[in-house]
Design a protein that fits this description.
Layout lengths: L2 H18 L22 H8 L1 H4 L14 H6 L2 H10 L19 H15 L15 H6 L7 H11 L1 H4 L15 H6 L2 H10 L20 H13 L3 H8 L13
The protein binds heme C (2 copies).
The site of one heme C has 24 residues, from helix 3, helix 5 and helix 11.
């Protein structure tokens, strides 16, 4: 080997080491590196591992509400979104994810989930934000609305819902019962409120929400309607089982 060749050999060796030395046999590539679960800050991974099982992969067509829904993400503000993920929904299968509440996710991960759901799923082109009542019934009351009245709610039901869900809510030609005790025991008052306001557009062909019908419901009508639904929940188990707002609601048979 001439000195010239030797220099070339060294040059190639050094280049090889500088550029490729991260690939010694057995050394994991960036993608293969193990990351502690508390360090994961990738939306798809966080969502896929923690939420997709119930809310559907890609945020749709799961057993629980579609989260990849601009109308829903327009309805729930960032703070409430974070709070639901942190604390879960007591007495339902929605778990608490914050470590403080017994979950596995850090605050940074929960912030990222809420942030990315809003930015990736909340505002696709062409979606015009609409004006909706407040996410929480108590905020609605703080804004001056009255508590829900289930007797008025029965009337609201007849006008807006009976066409599909039947005269008394026990099911009609196009949609099932929404006063089934087992159904009402499984869902929180908030979940009923959410369904009444934004519908559940990915479980049926039609949307049963207040915002899309020809005559949109007022915030008060929504509260009355939710009160009517809640008043159908079996009393013994129901009210503290799934509702945080039941105390604000006057049942139809209240004296
Ligand atoms: C074991 C099933 C399950 C898992 C896992 C789960 N959820 Fe849920 N989630 C539910 C159910 C059921 C509800 C409805 C609870 C109720 O009745 O209010 C819900 C409700 C919600 C709501 C409120 C919807 C409303 O009606 O206003 C949000 C937001 C939400 N989940 C986000 C998430 C996110 C984000 C994750 C992952 C970090 C997640 N969920 C994981 C089952 C689940
Ligand atoms: C155009 C028909 C139609 C109208 C009007 C309608 N819904 Fe629905 N609703 C459906 C369909 C379809 C489903 C899917 C499940 C089924 O087939 O029962 C559904 C499901 C529901 C559910 C169950 C959601 C769940 O979590 O499983 C609730 C609660 C509900 N509707 C409430 C209402 C209320 C309250 C009104 C009146 C504001 C209303 N709906 C108006 C068609 C309708």
């Amino acid at each position: 080997m001439t000195p010239k060749h030797f220099a070339l050999f060294i040059f190639i060796l050094v280049c090889g080491l500088v550029s490729g030395c991260s690939r010694f046999p057995g050394k994991p590539s960036e993608a293969e590196k193990w990351i502690a679960s508390s360090e994961v800050l990738n939306f798809d991974q966080l969502y896929g591992q923690n939420c997709a099982g119930c809310h559907g992969s890609g945020g749709r067509f799961g057993a629980a509400r579609a989260l990849n829904d601009p109308l829903f993400l327009n309805f729930i503000d960032r703070d409430n979104l974070r709070q639901v993920i942190r604390e879960g929904v007591p007495s339902t299968s929605m778990p608490a994810f914050a470590q403080k509440f017994g979950g596995q996710l850090t605050d940074a991960q929960i912030d990222l989930l809420a942030e990315q759901m809003k930015s990736q799923w909340g505002n696709p082109e062409g979606f015009n934000p609409v004006s909706l009542p407040a996410y929480r019934q108590q905020d609605n009351i703080a804004n001056g609305a009255a508590v829900g009245d289930s007797q008025r709610g029965a009337g609201v039901y007849n006008t807006h819902c009976s066409e599909c869900h039947g005269a008394d809510g026990r099911g009609g030609k196009t949609a099932g019962s929404i006063v089934d005790p087992d159904f009402l025991k499984l869902v929180s008052d908030q979940s009923l409120r959410t369904t009444v306001i934004v519908g559940r557009r990915f479980i049926g062909k039609v949307d049963c929400s207040a915002s899309t019908s020809a005559q949109p419901m007022t915030a008060q009508e929504v509260s009355d309607l939710v009160a009517w639904l809640v008043s159908q929940r079996p009393r013994a188990l129901g009210n503290e089982a799934a509702g945080q707002s039941s105390s604000e609601i006057k049942p139809a048979n209240a004296r």
